[in-house]
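S.,

Sequence below, as promised.
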Amino acid sequence: MKRHYSIIVFLMVFVLLGCPPPQKARKKMPRIFALSYTMITGKEPSYLITDDFNRDNIPDLVVANSGDHSFSFYKGLGDGTFKDQLVYQTGRDPICLVSGDFNEDGYTDIAELNYADQSIQVFLNTRLGSFQRTEQLIKPGKIPINMALGDFNSDGNIDMVVTLRFSNVAVILGKGNGFFKEPYIMDVKGQPTAVVVGDYDQDGKTDVAVALAGNGNKGVQILWGKGDGKFEGSKAFKGGKQPLSLVSLDVNNDGLMEFVTSSNSLHALTTLVNNGDKTFTSLRDFASGNFPKFVVAADFTGDGLQDIAVSNSTDDHISVSLGRGDGTFTYPPIYHKVDEHPQGMAVADFNGDGLLDIAVSSRDKNLIDILSKKNMINPKPDLHQKEPKSS
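The prediction came back faster than expected:
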């Protein structure tokens, strides 16, 4: 009887209050990009970078082929297509690439990080459309994960910073002739994964931001540069539960650089807003597709606001979330179908139409897909539309 009484009370409340109104259907925004070109890579392409290596004002591409221990170089032709790949052998399991003028000859060089060999090799630009490996084999430390470039000691030479899996980073100062000094090791407040470089307190000195995942602290730690090659570590700021990738951008147009992290196993991204006082505030996690692998940032729609693109490696999509200018992004994201298991991404105007395009590596198909804006219309998102709060 008591059970029947409870049911009657529930039905009376339901009738009096009524059922909740249905949620308004979300307008599906049109795609920004279309697949315009595909090219063959080596085995299991992953990390991808773009730069102008031959000084013709046309972006080129380089991809690390982890499966056959090489990287592939593609000279851009300026119409969204590329010359056939030139393949260079590396150490075992290359997982990261960076580009910079290491010998100060005015031409951009390449450095690649090998996970299995725990080494870095530098390939100098010959100025003839090819690269020559130097004799130096850099040993950054145990289990290197990622690396970035900057001038940390204010001598005008390009330096390296490398994340090491167990609570360390290695700083490797450049000599300006294509060679590097011995690394020195710094402790961080967790297990570092991704790393980016910038001036996050606007003091004119280069800082380093490190994503922390695994056991212990999780989020982002800033290594505040002193301008002499030394750093002062911040506390660990909350920024994702398992952040494995990290991108730096100005999410709210205040002139300060902030971060978005991706925790791929949790299908979540997190924004960290720069407070301007050497602290950061973490916003609520948001979604941009399943298993976000890599994240890149750029103004894809030309509205002056920074957007993000995410490679969703289990969905075979690139998802684009448009910035609102207040630290948040539009939802749902705009999905673009690509080849199987997308990994690294690079952003540039590959076809010379003045609009940004995206290159993405497809690990399972051994391909690079070029997504261009040719004949595409920029969406006009409702910037007031926000992602619903999870229950």
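The first strand starts at residue 34 and ends at 40.

Coffee later?
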